[in-house]
Amino acid sequence: MDLHTSMQLAFAGMTAQGQRLKVIAQNLANTDSTAKTPGGEPYRRKIITFHAVLDKTLGADSVAVGRPVTVSGKLESKFDPGNPAADAEGYVQMPNVNPVVELMDMRDAQQSYQANLNVIDAAKSMISHTLDLLRG
Amino acid sequence: MDLTQIPLFKAMAKKLAWLGARQAVLAENVANANTPGFRASDLKPVDFGKLLNGGGNGILKLAATSPGHITTPASGVTTEAPKVSSSGPIQLEDQMMKVSDTATDFAFTTSLYQKQIALLKEALGH
Hints:
The complex is a heterodimer of chains A (136) and B (126).
Chain A: H1 2-29, E1 46-47, E2 50-55, E3 60-65, E4 69-70, E5 76-79, E6 91-94, H2 99-132
Antiparallel strand pairs in A: 1-4, 2-3, 5-6
Chain B: H1 7-31, E1 41-43, H2 48-52, E2 83-85, H3 92-124
Antiparallel strand pairs in B: 1-2
Helix pairs in contact in B: 1-3
């Protein structure tokens, strides 16, 4: 039934957004995670990728989450000679996590999650209206 | 009595099926709102008024007593609406509007259905 398909698709969307939020939380938690050894690599920001996959049982394009991708790019250095990760000059490489960007991403994930929730609500109300027909 | 033989009921049943199918397409769009390159699609609107006024299969055909008689032509209206893709990224607000529109239409059609059943029951003296 189409309405159940709608619900299944919305569930897939919610799962995907949930996973996205998980990665965002991981990034935010590791904003200050430096390496343990001098000159080592600090934590690098990870992002999630989405792609449409044809769900053959539903006959519609569902959403799938790919593996989290590590974002490369320049790292900022901070002068902190006491840190165990500090190099010979006393500089520590910091993660490339920007909390503002993560918060924006979080907002976006939240919005998409809510949109999927609204679809479920609408499908649910449609199903209950159909069942109401039995009452005559 | 087969209710689906009554054109109005037939049209309403088709409308409900169409709305259900549309909701599935919209759910697909919303689930893929963050998928790069995914294009929003929607069902082509169907003119149910036309379906009711003699188009489609709900039509009352003229009785033909001889194979040589000309029958009423088949209408071009079908409820198997094709999917149309729009260009550009998915706009969640737009999709939400469509979702709530579909749900409201569905509620409207089901209540109309109930009213028609009540009317029939009234006529039957229940």
